[in-house]
Amino acid sequence: MDRRSTGAVMGTLTTKLKRISLLWLEGFREACCFHRVITYCFRSKELAIRMGQCFLLNGFFFLGSIFILRSFIIPTLQWILPDGCLQITSQESCSIGGILRLYSFLRFWLVQLFYVFWFYPLYIFSFILNTIWYNDIAKFGFFAIEKGYSGTKSSSQNNLPAEQNTADRDDKATDFEGVMIGIAEQVYSILLLSFFFLEVYVTGFIPYIGKTLNFLLLSWMYAYYCFEYKWNFSGLRLDKRLDFFESNWAFFAGFGGPCVLAIFLYSPLVSYGVMAILYPLFVMTATGTEADKVITSQRKKWKGEGLGRIPIFVSADYLSMKVLLLFPLQQVQSTKAL
Fold first, then answer.
1. Where are the alpha helices (DSSP H) in 266-327?
2. Fewer CB atoms inside 10 A, N or C side of the chain?
């Protein structure tokens, strides 16, 4: 009996791990469907322009500046201001250690000046522009995807009866309430993701398993960021987003995997530049991904069985609600109602 029960448990565990792997691979594959981006760019001129601007700023200017610094400026400074006796022809001058220390001091501060007057302003400038451009890219991509059946929508809207137009006017009375709910959702979402980012940062310091947890949490975080644009434009409520995300955690862990690889493979500055180029591509693949259909197709093979929900944002949610309690009670209650 013990052997049979052990075998049954192992069989269930193996099946579970296989399903997790398959769903993870589906998410990874969907994230890497970059051919969709080319199709969307052909459909939308505005999208193609924004993507080109993003590649030019982050690839040519930012990463190009790093390449020039490391390949030309620093080697030139080391040639002009050597740090060793082998690069100084005169042994008399080499015996004077003060000169070498002066050379090292000058090299260090010249490089720091390059960072202060070029890299840091460029980083801030690119961060602001990228934030604006990513939203534009998601918007233009969303409209490009909808473009295929926009004609049928426009024809149906032209045939709306007068009663429907009257109902639309009546619905405007509730527009203010909808705007307030939308603002409350955005505030809560910002708090939630901020605390989740802090959680991701802290897990990196955990011994032995810290890097693995950090990679997993970062994968979820970037996957949520990529899909949030689509969910915003489609009007999906925040509570449904979180429920769908946490119920299909394996798929989103796979989707965010390629996004995180750039962070782990390069230095911080280079990883920022690479990620700034790749991120709009992942936003576009997320916009074009019908995650619910992909996940449902897999569940049909499993006879409708899921993997269970993981409360990914439970800690961030708890801290967010604690912060919201600092505000007036009515605002907190309206936020909880979301």
1. 268-288, 291-301, 314-324
2. N
Long-range contacts of 268-275 (CB under 8 A, 24+ apart): 269/66, 269/119, 269/123, 270/63, 270/66, 272/62, 272/123, 273/58, 273/59, 273/62, 273/63, 273/66, 274/63
Which residues lie closer than 8 Å to 14 by C-beta, 6 or more apart?
Answer: none
Reading the chain (338 residues) residue by residue, the pLDDT tens digits are 456 666 666 767 788 888 888 899 999 999 999 988 998 999 899 999 999 999 999 999 999 999 998 899 888 888 887 766 555 454 544 555 567 777 788 888 888 898 888 888 998 999 899 989 999 999 998 888 887 545 434 433 443 333 334 334 344 335 656 566 667 777 888 888 899 999 988 988 888 888 889 899 999 999 999 999 999 888 888 888 999 999 999 999 999 999 888 777 788 888 888 989 999 999 999 998 888 888 888 777 776 666 788 999 999 988 988 887 887 645 544 444 45
